[in-house]
Amino acid sequence: MDQLLPAEILEAGQAFPRALAACGDLDSLLRLKGIYVGREASHAARLMELLKVAPKEQKRDLGAAINALKQQWEEGLKHRQAELETAKKSLNALASSWDPALPPPTPAQGALNPLNRLMDRLVEVFRPLGFHVEEGPEVETEAHNFDGLNIPEDHPAKASSDTFYLAVHPELLLRTHTSPVQVRTLLRVAPDLAARGGVRFLAPGRVYRKDEIDPTHSPMFHQVEGMLVGHGIGMQHLKGTLEYALRALFGPHTEIRLRPSYFPFVEPGCEVDVSCPLCGAKGCRVCKGSGWVEILGAGLIHPNVLRYAGIDPDEWSGWAFGMGVERMAMMLSQTPDLRLFFENDQRFLQAMGGLD
Ligand SMILES: [Zn+2]
Questions:
Q1: Rounded Cα gap, residues 90 and 98, in angstroms
Q2: All residues at 6 or more sequence positions from 270 whose CB lies less than 8 Å from its CB, including other chains
Q3: 210-212-217 Cα angle (round to 5)
Q4: CA–CA separation, 62 vs 207, rounded Å?
Q5: Residue from 150, 177, 149 nearest 162 by CA
Q6: CB 3.0–4.6 Å: which of 11, 102, 194, 250 could bond 254 by disulfide?
């Protein structure tokens, strides 16, 4: 039947749905109506004239084709008209309900994620001691992430089962800790370390490990590390600084204890516990009745780490610590599932307002 219709009418038929959708108000819809189904000079009127002059044997088929087209147009126009009328009504209702004397609506105020606030707070605790913030890239080299930290070639952390290596650049990886910031900073300050009289800084940031996500693990999490290099620095300086910082965080009656531990980049190394801030060391679910909670790892910088950066370990020494931010936030807020910190549930984030 289509072959009976002129090409321009077929084109107009094809263009109809788009033209209809483009009508944003009743006036433009009225104009479209005139073009397609108006009494005079419309596509429909032209078709009726065609029908009049068509040979007798074509009239039935042509008539059916024309009716189908006209019906399609009329129904489309009617439907769109109803839509536009509804939209106009609701716009009018909105306009009549607007009271210019009322104060404007206040946009919802955003806030920093609780993890960022906790990291900021740690930075503020260390700032009066002369610590500044160092940052580094999240995509790192093996050298900065492992070699510069005295991590041996066969260390399990180097396995691709534990670390995200970049498929396109297998020598690059997503840093597994913030410690490469220490390597980068030491390398940078080494030439004028004597003129500076040492260095002290914090390195807060995101780190990545191939962990399945569950209530206490995530392939992405946050760390804050601290480092100090100077003359004659020993465990007493580490302990004194941590005591000061952890009391600033958890309260003046907080006690700390150091337990020997092993990390490749420190010697000696230790785990640091604080007296449970939730029960006042009486024993609760969080401290599993012991009165102590493990809070961070620390130690004196391994001579190889200093050597790698070109710093003479006979002249310089220092300490470093690292802590998991999620873990500390979970403990402070008694949140059982770290995923809550990433899921942006407004109810949780608002409840976390009291974290600091
Ligand atoms: Zn407790």
A1: 12
A2: 258, 259, 260, 261, 297, 298, 299
A3: 95
A4: 72
A5: 177
A6: 250
CA dihedral 157→237→292→207, nearest 10 degrees, is -30
| Section 249-266 average pLDDT | 94
H-type helices in 139-274, by residue range? Answer: 142-145, 179-189, 193-196, 235-250
Q: What are phi and psi of 335, to 5 degrees?
A: -90, 125
The alpha carbon of 114 and the centre of ligand 1 are apart by a number of angstroms equal to 22
Q: How confident is the model at residue 356 (pLDDT cuts 50, 70, 90)?
A: very low
CB-based contact 245:125 (threshold 8 Å): yes
Task: Measure 1 CA to ligand 1 centroid, in angstroms.
Answer: 85
Q: How far is the CA of 231 from the centre of ligand 1 (A)?
A: 38
pLDDT tens across 13-48, in order? 888 999 999 998 999 999 999 999 998 888 888 888
pLDDT digits (tens, 9 = 90+) for 278-334: 888 999 888 899 999 999 999 999 999 999 999 999 999 999 999 999 999 988 888
**Residue 285, amino acid:** R
**Residue range 150-169, pLDDT digits in tens:** 998 888 877 878 899 999 99
Q: How far is the CA of 335 from the centre of ligand 1 (A)?
A: 14
Ligand 1: centre distance to CA 330 (Å): 13
**Residue 275 Cα to ligand 1 middle (Å):** 8
Is the whole model's pTM more than 0.90, yes or no?
no
Kindly list the distances between the CA atom of residue 228 and the CA atoms of 16, 107, 175, in Å, as whole numbers in the listed order. 74, 44, 21
Exposed e or buried b for every residue in 117-141, given b needs 16+ CB within 10 A?
bbbeebbebbeeeebebbebeeebb
Question: How many whole angstroms from 298 Cα to the centroid of ligand 1?
Answer: 22
The distance in angstroms from the start CA to the end CA of the chain is 76
**Letter for the amino acid at 322?**
G
Contacts 24+ apart (CB under 8 A), 235-242: 235/268, 235/300, 235/319, 237/319, 238/298, 238/299, 238/300, 238/319, 238/321, 241/129, 241/319, 242/272, 242/296, 242/298, 242/321
